[in-house]
Amino acid sequence: xxxxxxxxxxxxxxxxxxxxxxxxxxxxxxxxxxxxxxxxxxxxxxxxxxxxxxxxxxxxxxxxxxxxxxxxxxxxxxxxxxxxxxxxxxxxxxxxxxxxxxxxxxxxxxxxxxxxxxxxxxxxxxxxxxxxxxxxxxxxxxxxxxxxxxxxxxxxxxxxxxxxxxxxxxxxxxxxxxxxxxxxxxxxxxxxxxxxxxxxxxxxxxxxxxxxxxxxxxxxxxxxxxxxxxxxxxxxxx
Length: 238
Fold this sequence. Notes:
By secondary structure, the protein is mainly alpha-helical. It contains eleven helices and five strands. The chain has a three-stranded antiparallel sheet, covered by helices on one side. Strands 1-2 form a two-stranded antiparallel ribbon.
């Protein structure tokens, strides 16, 4: 059924298009981007966990987001060296920032999750929000190219970028300096768990300092350590 030449959208799709500022030529991309793996499970014969979910678009969106943020940083800070730009980029594409931007963009209200997961508050989890944000960026890119993705990223990221007047320190460096300033032993990082298939491993790292522990999970040990350090810094600063 169409409205003129435009397929009729569901209420969820129409709301998502308003939030993203883009009318999809291929609305199936938007549906996929908003579908959490719990909602995709069991939809039709041969379906498996994750099939039809936003995981593939998240993979695309992660790369598109990195490109667009790097491009913007190079424009905005023409006199900064690569190391400083790299620290800005790492902070801006980190899971806590992604989740915060997704929350501000009200993506939680249009993510499709299984009913039992919705009752458990899954839509508000940082991992779910961050993944959905990357997925919709991937969908924007595949539907309309870089321009709609760029427009959304710059609009959504502007408050965050404006609040970052100077390059942030790497969380591991900042945590080490925190310990040294107080005469404490250096932070200790431990691999708590490694799981997932060989081609897509996931690492869980814990770091301990001053009687507190931070945890981080990511596809590389380095990123997991960075996330663990960031979490512990947040605890120590509160």
